[in-house]
Amino acid sequence: MKQIDKATERKLYWLFTPMALVVAALILDLWLGVNLNFLSWCYPAILGSALIVFTGFAIAAIRQKCWGELAIALFMAIFMLLNMSNFFVDLLLPGH
Known about the structure:
Helices cover about 75% and strands about 0% of the residues. The chain has helices spanning about 5-10, 15-30, 40-65, 65-85, 85-90. The chain is mainly alpha-helical.
């Protein structure tokens, strides 16, 4: 399976920065007691920061014709979206 070249992959690691900031806010709010009201804005922030990463890697995979990596990234993104929407919980517990 063809992979994204290492130089591009190192540049794409910068796309994880927004996700790291969201995790830092989570740690400050839930573990250290800083009142950031994290639970009111956490889902859009986590979703947006994760989609930034998936979009960047998907664009790089398309440009370099790495179809296996693109398929894996799309599967992970769809699984993440279904998991965040409680699809699997509703599937297992229909009356819940």
